[in-house]
Design a protein that fits this description.
This protein has 241 residues and is an alpha+beta fold. The protein contains four helices and 16 strands. The strands form five sheets. The chain has a five-stranded mixed beta barrel. A four-stranded antiparallel β-sheet has the order 5-4-9-10, with no helix packed on it. Strands 1-2-8 form a three-stranded antiparallel β-sheet, with no helix packed on it. A hairpin with a 5-residue loop joins strand 4 and strand 5.
């Protein structure tokens, strides 16, 4: 339905633009309109369009980074690690004061995604972790795709940070991996699994990892990639075994 709405919107814009030219030559306009009618439902050839929106609640700075395929053909996204995107925070003097990938280590793995014409790939994340290392102020949040095919697929927005988070430099968060059996959701932010010793264990979900578990069947064997934050395992991504 989302794709259909986008196509319909494009059709309306094309019809409106066609209407603007009727005053110049009505006879030519009529011929043009009849000839272009069959193309109004096609996706206009373009590029991969990035966008960034904030969905912050309860003091958390949550964002959704999107890639929309406005091309008429499939777009392949290939990554060399479990990282799908990266982000950085820039201060008022245009200095990069935090870069997410410099504070994490990602599992090296080849993965590929195909984005069909009109499709949107959503990547959700919480920038609070990065902001918590910085003093209060206004920052520019810049996000981009790490796909090998990326052609400046980046978006940015201004973020106001009140400085209430703890400011500690800390060490890099090491991304670890383990195989588990999925038991089910505990709440919207955590799941229960059985580890390799068949012991029940709770794990938190990052915003990026949540879509994977939305329709995952209970009992599925999965491999999870996680970091340890405040003594808790926080899943960054996962895949079926």
């Amino acid at each position: 339905m989302k794709n259909m709405l986008k196509v319909t919107s494009t059709a309306i814009i094309l019809i409106a633009l066609g209407g603007c030219g009727t005053s110049a030559n009505s006879s030519e306009s009529e011929e043009g309109n009849t000839g272009s009618g069959s193309k109004n439902n096609e996706i206009v050839a373009g590029s991969v369009v990035p966008s960034l929106s904030e969905e912050s609640t309860d003091g958390a700075h949550q964002f959704t980074f999107q890639l929309r395929n406005d091309k008429e053909e499939d777009v392949k996204l290939s990554m060399n690690s479990s990282q799908l995107f990266d982000y950085q925070l820039i201060d008022s003097s245009d200095k990069v004061v935090y870069k997410d990938s410099e504070n994490k280590m990602y599992a090296q793995m080849l993965q590929e995604k195909i984005l069909k014409p009109g499709e949107i790939l959503e990547m959700q994340f919480d920038a609070t972790e990065g902001l918590s290392k910085l003093p209060a102020g206004k920052y520019t949040l810049e996000v981009w795709s790490t796909a090998n095919e990326a052609e400046d697929w980046k978006a940015s927005t201004e973020v106001s940070w009140n400085g209430t988070g703890s400011s500690s430099a800390g060490d890099k968060l090491k991304v670890e991996e383990t195989s588990v059996t999925y038991v089910g959701l505990q709440d919207v932010n955590s799941i229960e699994v059985k580890n390799e010793q068949n012991e029940a264990e709770a794990m938190r979900l990052s915003e990026t990892a949540k879509p994977f578990f939305a329709e995952l069947e209970e009992g599925a064997k999965i491999k999870v990639f996680y970091v340890i934050i405040d003594g808790q395992k926080v899943i960054q991504s996962a895949e079926k075994e």
